[in-house]
Amino acid sequence: MAIRFARFNIQLLESPDVEMKADEWQALLNDSAIEGYADDYEVFYLSQRGVVGLSVPYEDDDPMLLLEAGAVLGFCQSRCEASNIGGIESMWLSLHDADDSTIDSPI
Asked: Fewer CB within 10 A of the terminal residue: the chain, N end or C end?
């Protein structure tokens, strides 16, 4: 049973206030994960790529855990879409191995 990660990613627009926007998005993602009943999660910021996001672990042999991770990410995505923080280019979901290699992503 390998641990994998379901992620909700937000590509930030390049701007002088990108760090401030990243902080605001990270705070919203953290609050949303808690409100979405996430048991285990990590909010991340990849500054070199301008991407903030939320990562939820799941065991690859337990489809229910993937479903639960998807529910948390969907809740967080809806909260982000309803926010007025701004400064984003795109949002997407992805799956990753423990070594951070991408399993599946539309981007």
From this structure: N
